[in-house]
Specification:
The protein has helices spanning about 5-30, 55-60, 60-70, 85-90, 105-120, 135-140, 175-185, 230-245, 260-265, 285-290, 305-310, 325, 360, 365-375; strands at about 45-50, 75-80, 95-100, 125-130, 145-150, 165-170, 215, 250, 275, 295-300, 315-320, 335-340, 385-390. The chain is an alpha/beta fold.
């Protein structure tokens, strides 16, 4: 099911389900006066993040911290079926509960099955990493977990009774740190702050690749298409890189859905240009190894960026609707970001004010990206961020 339709369903759930459920839970809480102190041992823990492979990777420090503190606990991760591949590779998780949201009927049936599993499991602790989702709040509540953690947003005060403990969501903090705040809430002092590196699969059959190559990822998921640098800019960048270094090998990536978009870029090159199209031709395990072995990954702010970051590969990330302070910082990540007036907008709007006219990305010039690629040869610390403040830009107007 497309993201826009899921967001519409989520809004309806907020009106017709979440609000009355919040009232009911508050009432029951006052009657029962259940003990929600956090000094007890947590033997059964649920972590929930339905959307965003990158966000799941950013949650690995929290998972490692919980595993270190509660070594005998059973940790269950709740997510959408699209994330099964990455979750299977995170050794900190004991079991995965998956939601099928591919269609309306499958969403209903899968939700009922998920609720049954959660009630049977009866978690001591349920941590909901979704920030805006009414659906996730409802599932968290009806799971009957003893302690339920969620994020506080002023616009969603009606959810305050659905969680036993709430944490302020700071949009300026790195997202992995925002997740780790829940560990602080539990009184855990020893934090694992690094992303978990996915181990190499020695038996995996890989596509034929050149010995040395750069990966280019021109895609972004439908969670926010505004994160894409224009494909015309990617085409011009590839041409400039190839012109300056004819021996350079470039590999374009993307999933099956994104392969048509990648093909529009590939149409500008022939077999002699050393530009290879792997979009739609790799599974997740193969993609991980393609990223691991790359000399450099040039990418928009999306899942493969987080994967490459966790693997230790050098990354040049292009940011716009999101801030690199929140999603891009890493010792092997260099970010280009135009600090325009309306950015970052992702945590303020379901639909960006620009309605797709993403000046925050379009204003990143081809020469800036090219120079950043070339300068990687001379930089020892890859966490350099290039900011450009733009004045007198008429940006941030909310169109009707």
């Amino acid at each position: 099911m497309k993201t826009k339709r899921l967001l519409f369903i989520d809004r309806l759930l907020g009106i017709f389900v979440a609000f009355p459920l919040n009232f009911l839970v508050r009432l029951v809480g006052k009657i029962t006066r259940f003990d929600h102190s956090l000094t007890k041992e947590m033997n059964k823990i649920v972590i929930c993040k339905y959307k965003g492979m990158g966000s799941i990777i950013q949650a690995t420090p929290l998972l490692a911290t919980l595993r270190n503190r509660y070594p005998n606990a059973k940790i269950v991760f709740v997510s959408s079926k699209e994330n099964k591949g990455i979750l299977d590779k995170i050794h900190l998780i004991d079991e995965i509960y998956l939601l099928n949201d591919s269609g309306f009927l499958s969403l209903i049936g899968s939700s009922l099955g998920l609720i049954r599993k959660l009630i049977r499991f009866r978690a001591d602790l349920y941590i909901d990493l979704e920030i805006y989702s009414n659906y996730s709040s409802i599932i968290t509540t009806v799971s009957l977990a003893k302690d339920r953690f969620g994020y506080y947003l002023r616009s969603n005060q009606y959810r305050m009774g659905m969680y036993t403990h709430m944490m302020y969501f700071n949009t300026k903090a790195p997202i992995s740190n925002a997740y780790l705040q829940f560990a602080h809430l539990l009184g855990i002092m020893e934090l694992h702050e690094d992303l978990i590196c996915i181990e190499q699969d020695q038996m995996l059959e890989l596509p034929v690749l050149p010995k040395n190559y750069y990966v280019i990822n021109p895609n972004a998921s439908d969670l926010r298409y505004e994160r894409r640098w224009p494909k015309e800019s990617f085409i011009a960048l590839i041409q400039k890189l190839r012109s300056s270094n004819p021996n350079l090998e470039l590999v374009l990536i993307g999933n099956k859905v994104e392969s048509l978009y990648v093909a529009e870029i590939m149409n500008n090159f022939n077999e002699d240009d050393r530009v290879h199209d792997l979009s739609g031709k790799t599974n997740l395990n193969q993609l991980i190894e393609v990223l691991r072995n790359a000399d450099l990954v040039i990418t928009n702010d999306t899942g493969p960026m987080h994967l490459a970051s966790s693997l230790g590969t050098k990354v040049l990330a292009l940011f716009g609707p999101c801030s690199p302070e929140q999603y891009g910082l890493g010792i092997n990540v260099k970010a280009l970001y135009k600090n325009v007036y309306c950015s970052p907008c992702v945590h303020e709007f379901v639909t960006s004010p620009c309605k797709g006219n993403n000046q925050c990305m379009k204003l990143i010039s081809i020469s800036e990206v090219y120079n950043a690629v070339v300068n990687y040869q001379f930089i020892d610390s890859f966490s350099t961020i290039l900011y450009t403040d733009l004045e007198n830009q008429a940006l941030g107007i909310v169109k009707r």
